[in-house]
Design a protein that fits this description.
Elements: H1 31-37, H2 42-61, H3 67-70, H4 75-83, H5 103-112, H6 133-144, E1 151-160, E2 169-170, E3 178-187, E4 192-197, H7 207-223, E5 233-236, H8 243-251, E6 255-259, H9 273-278, E7 284-288, E8 294-299, E9 303-308, E10 317-323, E11 328-334, H10 336-344, H11 347-357, H12 367-393, H13 404-417, H14 436-444, H15 462-465, E12 473-475, E13 482-483, E14 492-493, E15 495-497
Parallel strand pairs: 1-5, 5-6
Antiparallel strand pairs: 1-3, 2-3, 3-4, 6-9, 7-8, 8-9, 10-11, 12-15, 13-14
Helix pairs in contact: 2-5, 4-12, 4-13, 7-8
């Protein structure tokens, strides 16, 4: 027996674009910044700016008189911390190491960074995430504004952290089992649409929901409360599943499926694992409640039990499996619900994978710093997934799209450079010659010292080169002129843009600065 519904009668969303920003049809690449700004609005940046000035002004003023001007934007914290320093360590991308920020200044900001004023925390505060709550609230509010895909899933995410923290969790099977737990609602594409920071009993979830549905069920109902009825397929694992939850989702017109624990379903009349395993691979057994919740037990390498409020077996398909006993492939039947679950349950894992590729790793005992950088990584991953979907909808070839690394570095460069002056030179007397110890070491060395490779001029992004801010010509002291970096020019020049750090012609007859 199966419960089937005609998808044509369900008001599903089209698999169209999920972004309202046409980032690929613009003249400048700085629209990438607009994607990230969807997850960090101006109000939050202003609040962050006030806290940054209060906590870093005294410390940084002793190092650099330019501090006041350089910290006037809260976005600087977004720029330096997550995406430029330390740089990605990979042999084939050394060219990405662009000097956007002085290390000393970066470490000073990192040491003093605060999202809120600690003196404002109430004595009776029970929110263990109060120090980073405004950042994640701003990120989550932006995630909730995105159009939600048809297939979505709920799962847990672990933010890696091994320091001392009362809310630290351990999850066996995760790539980083120790850390801070976050419940995520993700689409099949990996885009995050809602999240809950888990902090034990004080987690911000309705207590009545927890009493009636347990923690897992309460999390699912809380994460999905903003969904439009009759438009989504929701998937989750047995940590969240219960009979009451499926019934509640049916009332909300949300079509759900997930693996289950039998003891959460009032001991339904299904075959035991031992019996169904004897019946052979591909065997399935179904039962349906009077309220429309169906259970399916299917035998593969082991018995799998699933529940759904819209389908069970559906239209089974034939799949190939390896038979260890006969040492050959055999075809077995797989129910449709198993296929849908396997296809749609990967959203959170995909988002975790993208975040882990170029995760901001800064060794620190401060859990707040780890959570701040993780929020930046999540915002960038969401922005890149939106960028990819926009590119596909506009017919942009895959080879012409930016991968995650180049998207992140381009975004970082524009956030740091657009509309700002370039960092000044380091103060102090320059070293004119190597130290005596270095010279003596060179004399003792049997092999000649290796010469450093010739420095290259990196072309800035279009957003930086056309921001009309801080581009001033300067003359180098080289004996020979350098090739102009304007693509349309073949001349040579001694003139350098002191912001972009590239050579450009600047004569009465030719002005490559303007071009």
């Amino acid at each position: 027996m199966s419960i089937e519904m005609d998808s044509g009668n369900i008001g599903f969303l089209d698999d169209g674009t999920i972004s309202d920003i046409d980032i690929l049809n613009s003249e400048s690449e700085n629209e990438l910044e607009d994607l990230l700004n969807k997850f960090a609005n101006d109000d939050f940046s202003a609040e962050l700016d006030n806290e940054m000035l209060a906590n870093t002004e005294l410390d940084l003023h002793e190092e650099d008189d330019q501090t006041t001007n350089e910290t006037q934007s809260g976005n600087e914290v977004f720029d330096i911390s997550p995406m430029q320093f330390p740089f990605v360590q990979k042999k084939d991308i050394k060219w990405i190491n662009k000097p956007f920020q002085e290390p000393n200044r970066f470490y000073s900001i990192r040491q003093n960074i605060h999202i809120i004023n600690n003196m404002d925390i109430a004595r009776d505060n029970t929110d263990k995430f109060v120090k980073i709550r405004p950042l994640f609230d701003a990120l989550n509010n932006r995630c909730k504004q995105l159009p939600v895909e048809r297939n979505i899933s709920v799962d847990e995410q672990i933010v890696p952290f091994k320091g001392q923290l009362i809310i630290k969790q351990y999850m066996k099977g995760k790539p980083n089992p120790w850390g801070i737990k976050i419940f995520l609602l993700c689409g099949q594409s990996g885009i995050v649409y809602n999240m809950i920071l888990y902090q034990g009993v004080s987690t911000n979830i309705n207590k009545d929901l927890q009493k009636n549905f347990g923690l897992g069920g309460a999390v699912v109902l809380d994460l999905t409360k903003h969904l439009t009825p009759n438009r989504h397929f929701l998937f989750f694992d047995n940590f969240f599943s219960s009979y009451n939850l499926f019934y509640a989702l049916t009332a909300r017109q949300i079509y759900a499926a997930g693996t289950i624990r039998i003891n959460q379903f009032f001991n339904p009349p299904v075959l035991s694992d031992k019996v169904i395993m004897k019946m052979g691979r591909g065997t399935s057994y179904e039962v349906t409640s009077t309220l429309g919740v169906g259970l399916l037990k299917w035998c593969d390498n082991k018995a799998i039990t699933m529940a759904s409020n819209f389908i069970t077996s559906g239209k089974p398909e034939s799949v190939s499996r390896w038979d260890k006993k006969n040492k050959q492939y055999v075809n077995i039947e797989r129910p449709e619900i198993i296929k849908l679950y396997n296809k749609s349950m990967l959203g959170v894992d995909k988002h975790d994978q993208l975040v882990s590729y170029y995760r901001v790793y800064m060794k620190s005992r401060k859990w707040t710093l780890r959570m701040i950088t993780h929020a930046f990584d999540m915002a960038v991953a969401n922005s890149w997934l939106e960028y990819k979907q926009d590119a596909e909808n506009m017919g942009i070839l895959k080879k012409d799209q930016k991968d995650l690394l180049h998207f992140k570095t381009t975004l970082a460069e524009e956030l740091v450079m657009v509309g700002r002056f370039s960092p000044g030179k380091k103060r102090g007397r320059p070293t004119s010659s190597p130290s005596s110890s270095t010279r003596s070491a060179e004399c003792r060395s049997p092999t000649p010292a290796k010469t450093s490779s010739k420095a290259l001029e990196f072309r800035p992004t279009e957003g930086v080169s056309k921001d009309l801010f801080g581009h001033f010509p300067a003359y180098d002291d080289k004996k020979e002129a350098t090739r102009c970096k304007n693509k349309k020019c073949t001349g040579k020049t001694h003139v350098v843009c002191n912001k972009c750090k590239i050579h450009l012609c600047f004569t009465p007859k030719k002005n490559c600065f303007y071009d």
